[in-house]
Amino acid sequence: MRPSVAMPPAPAETAARAPRSDITTLKRLLPYLWQYRVRVLLALAFMVAAKGANVSVPILLKHIVDALTIKPGDPAALLVVPVGLLVAYGALRLSTTLFTELRELIFAKATEGAARSISLQVFRHLHALSLRFHLERQTGGMTRDIERGTRAVHSLISYSLYSILPTLIELALVLTILAVQFDASFAWITGAALVVYITFTITLTEWRTKFRRQMNEFDSTAHTKAIDALINYETVKYFNNEDFEAKRYDESLEKLRRAALKSQSTLSMLNTGQQLVIAVALIAMLWRATQGVASGALTLGDLVMINAFMIQLYIPLNFLGVLYREIKQSLTDLDKMFGLLDRDREIADAPGAPELQVRAGTVRFESVGFAYDPARPILHDISFEIPAGQTVAVVGSSGAGKSTLARLLYRFYDIGSGRITIDGQDIRSVQQASLRRAIGIVPQDTVLFNDTVEYNIAYGRPGASRAEVEAVAQAAHIHAFIAGTPKAYDTMVGERGLKLSGGEKQRVAIARTLLKNPPILIFDEATSALDSANERAIQAELKNVSVGKTTLVIAHRLSTVVDAHRIVVLHQGRIAETGTHDELLALDGRYADMWRLQNGGAEPPAATDRP
Hints:
Blueprint: H1 11-14, H2 22-34, H3 37-67, H4 77-80, H5 83-128, H6 131-136, H7 139-181, H8 184-231, H9 233-238, H10 242-295, H11 300-317, H12 320-341, E1 363-370, E2 379-386, E3 391-396, H13 402-409, E4 417-422, E5 425-426, H14 432-437, E6 439-442, H15 453-458, H16 466-475, H17 479-483, H18 502-516, E7 520-524, H19 532-545, E8 550-554, E9 566-571, E10 574-579, H20 581-587, H21 590-599
C-alpha cells in the first residue's frame, strides 16, 4: 500500500541550487577530456596547422596577383606566374581542409568518450538516488536535461575547439601580419572593429539569453505533459479527458511559441547590428588600402590580400553570436546535468561498510519510528521479529504503515529511530547492494519493462536460461498463458506492461522473484490483482516457496495470511495486536473485527499447520 501522507522533498532537494559559473562548469568537464590528453594535443596541433595554412592562402594570392602585373602583349606573359605558386595555392587550400578533418578525426574519440562517461555516471547516480527523489521526479523534464547535457558536451567541444579557438588563432596571425607588413593603422582598424563587434554580440546575446532559457523551460514543460498524458493513456480515456489534456499541452506550446518569437526577433536585431559593424570596418580597411595603392605604397596584391584577410576573418565572426549563445546554452545544459550528479543520495553506505552476511535470516524491527514528513509520523515504536525460516504477516487498514515496513527493510528510506537487523546486523551499517541481494520483493504495483516476457522474468537473475525462466513461470502459474500466445516467451509486454492484465503482471513479478531465490522474501499484496481461483493456487505455491525462507507478508485480505506463523496487526502506525490467526480471533479485538467485516460474519476456518 502507498503511504497515506504526502512525501515532501528532502531539504537538500527543496533548496534551489545556485547556478555555477561557466568557468566552474568547464573545470568540471576538463577531467573527462584530460584522459584523452594525447588526442587533445594532437588535435590542437592540427588546428594550428590548419589555421597557418589558411592564413597563408591570402599571402600566396598576393604574390600571384603581383606576378601578373605586366604589360599587355608581353611574350613572357605565360611564364610570369610560376607553376609552383599555383600548385602551392591549391596545396594550401587542400591542406586547410586536410588538417581540419584530421583534427576532427583525432578528437572524435575524446568527444564521444567524454559524453559517454558523463552520461553513464549520471545514469548510475540516478539509480543511486533515494526512492523519494524518484517518486517526485518528472521523467519527461529529467530525460530532457540528460539529453541536452549530453549534446552540450559535443556542442562545447565543437564550438570552442572547432570554431572559437581557431578564429582567435587566425585573428592573432592576421593582426600580426597587418601590423608588421603594413601600416599599423590596418591592425588598429581591424582590432577596433573586432572589439566593437564582440562587445555588441556578447551584450545583446546576454540580454536575449533569457528568451532562450524560457524556450527550454516551456519545451521541457510541454514534453513532460505530453509524456505524462501518453503514459496514463488509459486514465485519460476512462474520463474522456482527451480535450483536457490537449488543452494543457497546447497552453505549454503557446508559451513556447511566444518565447520563440521573442527569441527570433532579438536574433534579427543581433544579425543586423553585426553586419553594420562589419560593413563599416570593411569600408575603412578598403579605403585605406586603395589610398595606399594610389600612392604607390601598396600593390594590387596587397589590396587583394587585405580583402581576403577581412573575408576570412568576418565569415566565422558572422556566426559569433550564434556560437556564443550556443556555448552559453551548452554550459547551462551541462550545468543542469551536473546538477543531477550533485543530488544528495540521501541513503548512502557508511564508509567501509561490510557486506551483509546472511546466516539464518532472522529479521528484527527494534523500536522503529519513521516519518516521511517530520510533522506526521507514520510508525511509532514498532518491535517484532521474523524468525529464520518463518512467515510473519502484517495486516491493517490502509495507511497503517504496512508497506512502509517493506520499504524500510529494503532500505529505500532510513528509519528515524530504533533499528532493523538481519542476523544481528544493523542494515544501515552494511552495503545496500548486499542487503538487496538478500531480499526478494513482489510489490503491490508491478511495473514491467517494455520488452519480452522472458526478459522481464529473467530480470530476477540476468543470464538465466530459458529452462530456468520456464520453471519459475510454471511455479507462478503463468506458463500456460505465455505458451498460449503467438510469440510465447518472446511476447512484448508493452510500456509498463500495459499489454498484460493486472493479474498477469503480478504473476510475472512473482516468477522473477522466485528466479532471484533470495533467503528473505517480501510479498506486498502479492496476490491482490488475482481472481480467487488463481489466488488460492499461487498462495499454495508461495507457501511452498517460502519454506525455509524468512518471509514478510503484507496483506489486506486476511484469508491470505491465516497460515502465517505470526500475524502483526497495525493500527495508526502502532502494533495493536500480535499472535497466530487463532489467537487473534480468540482475542476478539481489531483482527477479529476485520475478519468479520471481510467475511460477512462467516466462521473462520482453522489454520493449517505450517512446517
